[in-house]
Amino acid sequence: MLQVPMNSVVGAEGGVEGLVAPAGFQDTLLRQGACSSLVAVLENSGVLDSPGAALLPVNVLSRLVLSSTESAKQFVAAGGLNSSLVQRLLADTNPSAMLVDVLLVISQLARLPARDSFNPYESISKAAIYSNIKNALERQGLVGPLIDRCSDADKSTRKFACFAIGNAGFHNATLYEALRPAIGPLVGLLRSSEEDKTRANAAGALGNLVRNSAALCGELIRAGALHALLDTAQSQDEGAQGQSMGSTAGSNAAAPGDGGSPVSIALFSLGNMCAHRECREALLAANINMTIKRLSANPNPTVQKYLQRIQTKLQTASTAAAPPQAR
């Protein structure tokens, strides 16, 4: 019953729609200790002995943790990151849907800042589950279901699916080939009317797909990722000065020059792409220099730092490619 108000339903036109929870529903769950109770169920009831029976409580936990920092704190405080529990949640025998929910929870906790006694990243480290996560992504076929979450009916799930995909490509290129199908959905989200944080996560994930290798450059070009990033940077800049002069953004909107805004993340990802010849040539053909010129008047220091990073990479590549002068 806890999950019902957060479920998706089939709309009148046959599409999947998010079912809006009653006002205050999740606050009530938080006050009543829903996360703590669900963690206790997973630890003590034997439900994990029958993995299919754990699908529902794990899904509800995932939705709560993704939607609220306070729920995330309650989850950690209740022992949700205890090593023995998380390793059982990431066991090979568990259903893919359940494993994806667990990965989304871990990915969300990893991005939350440490405050006072709340340090989720330290708790994740102590859980010693990195090999479990690597195994789940590489050998359990979870990348596909994770990519599917980019089109989930729930906006928080879409947002954190982008973030999790970016994490999967951050440290090395091991998963790049498996992540190739994510490029199209990420470009779609970047060009959509999603909230700023989702679009920033999509932009960052695209940049991480060239962070460690040029293997996906061709696919990124074919999917229109480079143009989408350039358009994002320029379209956001149109409103930058107005917002910086005092207009207020919505609760899910970032100021255009904010370090976590779509424009800043798009510029950083473009800088990653400039490190690879194939992407660099495509960006020059797309007139990235005009984008740099247009954004040069932006007063935000983060924007200027990332523009300088792009220019440095372009100039370094140009110098390296120049023929030696005759003596």
Automatic annotation (TrEMBL):
E.C. no: 2.7.11.1
Region span, Disordered: 237-257
Signal peptide range: none
Catalyses which reaction(s): L-threonyl-[protein] + ATP = O-phospho-L-threonyl-[protein] + ADP + H(+); L-seryl-[protein] + ATP = O-phospho-L-seryl-[protein] + ADP + H(+)
Record-level Gene Ontology MF annotations: ATP binding; protein serine/threonine kinase activity
Top-level taxon: Eukaryota
Keywords, comma-separated and alphabetical: ATP-binding, Kinase, Nucleotide-binding, Serine/threonine-protein kinase, Transferase
Gene Ontology cellular component list: cytoplasm
Record field: compositional bias (Polar residues): 237-251
EC primary class: transferase
Name this polypeptide is given: non-specific serine/threonine protein kinase
Organism: Haematococcus lacustris (Green alga)
